[in-house]
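Researcher: Dear colleague, please comment on this protein.
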Amino acid sequence: MFERPGGGENAVLVQLNFGQGDIVERLEELKLLAASAGATTVAIVEGRRERPDTALYAGKGKVAEVADAIRDTDADIAIFNHELSAGQQRNLEKELGCRVVDRASLILDIFAQRAKSHEGKLQVELAQLQHLATRLVRGWTHLERQKGGIGLRGPGETQLETDRRLLGKRVKVLKERLKLLERQRAVRRRGRMRREMLAVSLVGYTNAGKSTLFNALTKAGAYAANKLFATLDTTSRRLYLEGPGQVVISDTVGFIRDLPHSLVAAFHATLEETASADLLLHVVDSASGDRDAQIEAVNGVLEEIGAAQVPQILVWNKIDATGVEPAIERDAYGKIIRVRVSASTGAGLGLLRQALAETALTHAEPATHAINAA
């Protein structure tokens, strides 16, 4: 019998290989996601397939293996590191005799736990309801038998009797509230633009060290932890730089591969802060063997939210774990492309401030020319 620390749920993790090539990293990430949601991993089932099975995603033989693992470990839940259709999820639950959660539902659940601000909670609820709307075919009776837990927190627990009409009504209310908050955010943003302050947004893969770097630069005391999606709410602070003076720097939600589209849509107002920035500091965990895929995943989300054209400086973080020296790296034209730092030890932060000051002065030049021309 496996113990349940803190009353959490025991989970069997399922990872199939369709030839992606980064299975080890994906599996490690799934373990972190499960732990972040409060689950204890008691077994891992892996397999290789050419393509997903239409009915069960994993195929009958592999599903039988998962069922054995669930029975042997007394697991409460099976977590698939893939996106399942409503039909596949329903079929799997019937075969396995326990709740089945896919990757999208798992990430939504973590967001539901992490949301602290009013806006963050509204955004998470909207994302959950939009995701849930695609699964109404399953019927609420399935959920009513459950006591809650991973994949069922938030609206899934509190609105079990919501039908399509009420669901649509609630989604409409949430969108209207978020639109109002978005307008308020736009007013504040225009105020900053009138003051001609450089707007900098920290972006990066979840757990790359954005909040630690934000705190090191601004002494803001923002929440930072060694877990996925520690930050959901955008925090902005002014930062004084020698030469250009004040800039505004914002810490934003971390990205992850295969981020649910409902989350990207719901967090539109928050992510718009990133798209309207003058400069992105793309924080990378340089100690991660998966860093290239993580950079690609972040750039994919940036493209999705309309921020692909915003200038970037790569911040090669956690150099204390790799033994690399702090430095500013430039391209053949002298443009800064990367700064090597350690947010936790402070190594290289002076160089990063220097890079920001240089960028801010360059940003201010067109405005100065415009004033002189007038």
Summary: Confidence is low (pLDDT under 50) at residues 137-147, 156-160, 367-374.
